[in-house]
Amino acid sequence: LRDAAIGRIKEAVNSAEVEELRVKLLGKKGELTEMLKDLKNMDIEERKQFGQKANALKTELTEIIEGKFKELSVKDVKKSLSSGSNFDISLPGTNFKLGSLHPVTIVQKEIERIFTGMGFNIVDGPEAEEEFFNFEALNIPKHHPARDMQDTYWLENGSLLRTHTSPCQVRAMQKYGAPLKVIAPGRCFRNESTDASHENTFFQLEGMMIDKNVSIANLIYVMKLLLSEVFQRDVKIRLRPGFFPFVEPGFELDLNCMICGGKGCPTCKHSGWIELLPCGMVHPNVLRYGGIDTEEYTGFAFGLGLTRLAMMKYGISDIRVLNSGDLRAMEQFSVR
Ligand code: FA5
After folding, report:
1. Which residues lie with the beta carbon below 6 Å from any ligand 1 atom?
2. Contact at 8 Å (CB) between 197 and 319?
3. CB 178 within 8 A of CB 297
4. Which residues pair with 139 in a beta bridge?
5. What does the radius of gyration of the chain's CA atoms come to, in whole angstroms?
6. Which of 219, 212, 205, 208 is nearest to 181 (CA)?
7. Angle between the 44-83 and 15-26 helix axes, to the nearest 10 degrees?
8. pTM confidence score
9. Amino acid 335: pLDDT
């Protein structure tokens, strides 16, 4: 059996033939297996000798069969390579789809680049914020009507989801002191009903500069530079007086709506202007909460509506698209 089996394996010309032989010889009903069935009719000594021989043969044949499989598979690849028929190792592999950045992230990174170029540092603050930093330290005491300007999600433990990035102002002052140049991009939450330009979850980017002799002129210069860099062209803006308890004087900087060119559309509530960038000179009370000497230092601060800026930049007319997670919309902004 041994010599006949080895001869047959060596002569096999493809893997299918080898597999057929493997089953014929070593399979459940294979020749060797059938022979082993005779063991029960033998006496002990015979059984011992025959068993040992049969097992050794089984191991030998298994090894030869495996070797033959390997030899044939190398031959197969070589053959199909030389025939050039259906196996081409120079073919490019499967093209994996790359993800894309969210438009708000793209604009955020761009503004971070602009400000770090001017020597600003990037800071962060918690989204679940203490009432103190979100309101009191910003000169908005309990029962102040200005609290109604920002509908708040209160948490069971008495803290809240920050309604703006301004709490980062006081946290930064307390941590780093003056002089100070920081920006703080981040997510904010308001208990508002949504429409084309309002979301309950949106992004702001806070900015603050404190030093000796900082004035409104510095503020206007930085704001103009920022917007012309972001849009890469001259932008039409207007400044209105605005009230925020944490700045004095306070301003509203509006951007001419780029969706409709200022003619009026749902995004700008048909006014032609987008309320984009409230700002002002930091109120002395806020500087004091931050531990800054108000005799020596002054500063400006702004709270840019990052989500709305991204809408303007990319001509997105409904803010709700940005939180929808709809990849068909987001994929359009892919940057590699
Ligand atoms: C503030 O939140 C102030 N903290 C900004 C500030 C900072 C003023 C520093 C002075 C100094 P306001 O509530 O206006 O202000 O919001 C700022 C910007 O966030 C708005 O101009 C708007 O662009 C954006 N914003 C506000 N509410 C929403 C909303 N529901 N959905 C999308 N964007 C919003």
Report:
1. 150, 164, 166, 190, 192, 198-199, 202, 204, 244, 247, 250, 275-276, 278-280, 301-303, 305, 307-308, 319
2. yes
3. yes
4. none
5. 38
6. 208
7. 170
8. 0.72
9. 55
